[in-house]
């Protein structure tokens, strides 16, 4: 059994034989379902260096001993700026960390600390306990998404941004579902602030029978 818990914005905790935390922006997140000190993790995956994604990664890693997996440049940036953490820098492609299969895939987005560009944005395909999960990170839709299921097998659940302004909006996310062909979809990265306001029910309606759309409120989880 694998649980996918929505922590708000783009933060998720995937729990199975390992606990995998993705984009743990909790401090300062008005939609956060947990505080950094309440979250446990074995691995922390970061999609890009913006503050609303890198978030509390270093603080949680120091407390829990979790390894941070990120784009090579972001991993180096964290090691240079933070103490007491372990990072695994990678680039687009597959790897295995502590028995978890991880593929870092492209995302169309910027990546910076607010002043300087740091690495490239990414998404992740994660295989844990027989379940395949795709976290898109912040991205616009792109045709190469159709390669993901072709290369790595059927996607059980896709975590897709729908808020627009910085990422795909509803229309583009529906197209992403067509390309990815996942069994289930969880919308994310919407309604945290006014610029990314979106209606998940509209997204669900437009996806139709292409996939099962699961709308999670922060703190709710999907059991696979």
UniProtKB/TrEMBL annotation:
Q: Name one GO molecular function term.
A: hydrolase activity
* InterPro entries given in the database record: Metallo-B-lactamas (IPR001279), RibonucZ/Hydroxyglut_hydro (IPR036866), UPF0173 (IPR022877), UPF0173_UPF0282_UlaG_hydrolase (IPR050114)
A Pfam family the protein falls into: Lactamase_B_3
Renumbered to this chain, the signal peptide range is: none
- List, alphabetically, the SUPFAM superfamilies matched: Metallo-hydrolase/oxidoreductase
Residue span, Metallo-beta-lactamase domain: 8-189
Keywords of the record, alphabetical order, are: Hydrolase
User: Family per UniProt?
Assistant: Belongs to the UPF0173 family.
From the Swiss-Prot or TrEMBL record, give the protein name.
UPF0173 metal-dependent hydrolase HA-cmc-1-28
């Amino acid at each position: 059994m694998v649980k996918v818990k929505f922590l708000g914005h783009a933060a998720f905790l995937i729990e199975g034989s390992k606990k995998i935390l993705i984009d743990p922006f909790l401090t300062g997140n008005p939609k956060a379902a947990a505080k950094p000190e309440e979250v446990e993790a074995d691995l922390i995956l970061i999609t890009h260096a913006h503050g609303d994604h890198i978030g509390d990664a270093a603080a949680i890693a120091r407390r829990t001993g979790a390894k941070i997996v990120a784009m090579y440049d972001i991993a180096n940036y964290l090691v240079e700026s933070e103490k007491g953490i372990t990072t695994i820098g990678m680039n687009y492609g597959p790897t295995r960390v502590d028995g978890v299969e991880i593929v870092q895939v492209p995302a169309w987005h910027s990546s910076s600390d607010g002043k300087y560009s740091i690495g490239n944005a990414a998404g992740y395909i994660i295989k844990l306990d027989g379940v395949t999960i795709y976290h898109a990170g912040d991205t616009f839709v792109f045709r190469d998404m159709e390669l993901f299921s072709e290369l790595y097998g059927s996607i059980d659940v896709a975590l897709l941004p729908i808020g627009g302004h910085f990422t795909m909006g509803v229309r583009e996310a529906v197209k992403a579902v067509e390309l990815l062909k996942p069994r289930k979809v969880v919308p994310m990265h919407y309604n945290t602030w006014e610029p990314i306001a979106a209606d998940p029910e509209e997204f669900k309606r437009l996806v139709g029978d292409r996939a099962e759309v699961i709308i999670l409120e922060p703190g709710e989880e999907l059991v696979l």
